[in-house]
Write a structure and sequence with these properties.
The chain has 117 residues and is of the alpha+beta class. The protein has two domains: 58 residues, no CATH class; 58 residues, no CATH class. 41% of the residues lie in helices and 10% in strands. The protein is flat, with a radius of gyration of 21 Å. It starts with a strand and ends with a strand.
Length: 117
């Protein structure tokens, strides 16, 4: 059994299966902890490197290259975020993705941020 606690806590309740070496619940909790720690470490490293490069007088541009579109690029006709996947996907298909990518980013807006010293 797994219970998602609010915040960053995870509770693993060992009731009948007290194995520690190959317990799937413990493996799941450990992988969640490892992923959280790894992503936090990468974000801190990226921030530190960008700050140091900007302090050295170099321009630092941050691109969201793992997404086809920025979260704000595909909106409903009313301008808000989609609440249902199918209309969202149809809106994505209606965008000329190749033209947007060629324009400098998933949504054509270029980098998310540019830092200079």
């Amino acid at each position: 059994m797994r219970i998602m606690a609010p915040g960053n806590a995870t509770i693993v309740w060992l009731r009948l299966d007290l194995r520690l070496e190959d317990n799937p619940a413990l493996r799941w909790a450990a992988s969640r902890w490892w992923l959280h720690q790894s992503l936090a470490s990468l974000a801190a490293r990226d921030t530190r490197v960008a700050r140091d490069l900007a302090a050295a007088g170099l321009e630092v541009a941050d691109f969201n290259a793992h997404l086809l579109f920025e979260a704000t690029a595909v909106r409903t006709q009313g301008g808000g975020p989609f609440q249902v996947f199918t209309p969202f996907w149809k809106a994505c298909l209606a965008v000329d993705a190749f033209a947007a990518i060629a324009a400098g980013g998933g949504d054509g807006a270029g980098p998310r941020s540019v830092r200079r010293s």
